[in-house]
Amino acid sequence: TYQLKNPRVISRLYKENWKFLFALCYTYTKDELLSEELVQDVFIGLWKRGGELKVHTTVRGYLVKSVKSAIIRQFQKISVLPAKTGKNHLTRALRLIRNESDLFLHS
Questions:
Q1: Are 28 and 96 in contact (CB under 8 A)?
Q2: How far is the CA of 71 from the CAs of 2, 10, 21, in angstroms?
């Protein structure tokens, strides 16, 4: 159980996990700025949530799942993809996100 009202808890979770989560985001988005924003949004969401966070697996697994959900929501918002990204990249990224959850949850 993590006390999300305590700023030190959020700060520690961020410091311990942001590099890994950024790399995960970047793997799917190929966009540094977007990857940073998505990871930050996950931690802002935790902070806004407050209260207790009960994790049934590992906290990293929980954060990975949160980041993957953020990536999927972001891809769903995109109506026109940049030319260099292309539709095939989006399709592969979404497939990977949905099919490789176990790999990242146990990292």
A1: yes
A2: 24, 21, 11
What's the pTM value of the predicted model, to 2 decimals? 0.70
Q: Is 81 in contact with 87 (CB distance < 8 Å)?
A: yes
Q: What is the mean pLDDT of the chain?
A: 77
Give the number of other Cβ atoms within 10 Å of residue 34's Cβ.
Answer: 17
| pLDDT tens-digit map of 79-100 | 544 545 555 555 566 666 655 5
First to last CA, the chain: 20
Q: How many CB atoms lie within 10 A of CB 21?
A: 25
Q: How many CB atoms lie within 10 A of CB 45?
A: 12
Angle (CA) 32 13 18, round 5° = 15
Q: Identify residue 42 by its one-letter amino acid code.
A: V
**In the block, residue with structure tokens 């988005």:** 29
